[in-house]
Amino acid sequence: MKLIIAMIQPHKLPDVKQELYKNDIFKMTVTNVLGAGQQKGFTETYRGVLTEVNLLKKVRLEIAVNEGFVEPTIEAIKKGARTGKIGDGKIFILDLPRCIRIRTGEEGEEAIG
Amino acid sequence: MGLSAVLDTVWVLIASFLVFSMHAGFAMVEAGFTRAKNTVNILMKNFMNVSVGLLLFFLVGYGLMFGNSAGGFIGTSGFMLDIIDPSNTGNFAFWFFQAVFAATAATIVSGAVAERMKFYGYLIYCAILTAVIYPVVGHWIWGGGWLARLGMIDFAGSTVVHSVGGLSALAGAAILGPRLGKYNADGSSNAIPGHNIAIAALGVFILWFGWFGFNPGSTLSASSPAISTIAVNTAIAAAAGSLSAMIFVWIRYKKPDASMTLNGALAGLVAITAGCAVVSPISAIIIGLLGGVLVSISIGVFDRKFHIDDPVGAISVHGITGIFGTLMVGFFAQEKYASLAGFENTNGLFFGGGGRLLLVQFTGVAAVAAWTLGTMFLIFLAMKKAKALRVSRDEEIKGLDIEEHGMEAYGGFQIFQND
Questions:
Q1: Contact predicate B223/B229, CB 8 Å
Q2: Which residues of A touch B408 (CB under 8 A)?
Q3: Domain range for residue A52?
Q4: Per-state percent for chain A, helix, strand, coil, to nearest 5
Q5: What is the pLDDT of residues B150-182, one digit of tens each?
Q6: Does B84 reach chain A within 8 Å, measured CB to CB?
Q7: pTM of the entire predicted model
Q8: Which of A83, B192, B288, B419 is the most exposed place for a label (fewest CB within 10 A)?
Q9: pLDDT tens per residue, range B48-102
């Protein structure tokens, strides 16, 4: 079992969701985060003054999957989130030793669903 | 100036200030009913409605609306207030009163085209409406034009202001197309909730308050015997509208929905605007109750049946209810009340006047609808062809605040991306 964490551009979330749905992946957690990788900043203006913004808005997806779904999930996220420009984001794969469904108490591969 | 003239001028000015304050109401309602990422854009559109509207009405609009009539269709003098002697304070007050009305008509559209229209495209639309489209209608009905000569009664503008605004909104929203994610392939509709119902409610309260300048102010005279009746009719029609809308959605959707209740109050106000001076308070309540139900049904029809995305319900609140209110005058006008406002021998169908007034009202409604829809469809189509109408997909998803204005409304807040 793996936990896939992806940081993507917020405006690509609808596309990523659609790609995941197409691959039968519906269960996920989404949070708003601030972050930066190679994109070091962009400029905004406020009342005529340029402001450098160093931490940018991103969206963080967390999806727990069984082994068979790891590659489809990665491909779906890549396809949905890519724009070709710096700032597209990253995908991290973590090992997931245990997973429990609270309602029924099921564990393991059954619980991930 | 005699005391009477002084009081009249002061009253018209105060009423104008109240109507001006309605822009704050519009801005808050629209901001509340749309998403946070587009708030700056909504505010800018509403603000520019006032700026562009007042200036263009000064340059061109007023002359077309109240100038010497050319065949009853259009005015031909009074541009830039050149014929008005500044020592005639009353005339300047009248200009101001009319100017804020014009700006109100234009701002109705900003809600219906929200969240996906190019800002500079909106400015172009606003200029054209306040300079030409609206003044022509105003001339027909208030400037001594052909509908006025037929005896059409639209006391404070259910047709002149609200149906012109509402039908322009219809043309705009239809040509612009729905927001991304609003309609699914199978035709079902998704809710795109507003981000601040508190602000929306504040907006409706401000609009209701400002309407006390809109309706009673149209007497243009502090000593008009009808002035208090008008205020009463305005207040109770709004109350009836919000009540009936609330009960309707409570029964239909099992919960008293706040946004529909707010729209219901506005519907009651729009519906009574044409007849506030010529109907009895009981009639006002009936018109308000019907208006509230009508707007609730209409919003659903435009959304689910015609798939026209109207984020704030402007088409239904102003267009449909405006037409309805104008027609209601043909049923409910009563000599007992109308004569106080200076309309002699005026009775609607329910009070022995036969169908004559109703026929005139219908003629007016149809003519204005044809003019407004005809011109505005062409204008929006032309803008679409010139690519001046809709923002790109990425811009729409990122939000117009960042894309069109380079700033955020809620700096430092995390706006939830949930599309």
A1: no
A2: 44
A3: 2-112
A4: 30, 40, 35
A5: 999 999 999 999 999 999 999 999 999 999 989
A6: no
A7: 0.89
A8: A83
A9: 999 999 999 999 998 899 888 888 788 877 777 766 677 777 788 899 999 999 9
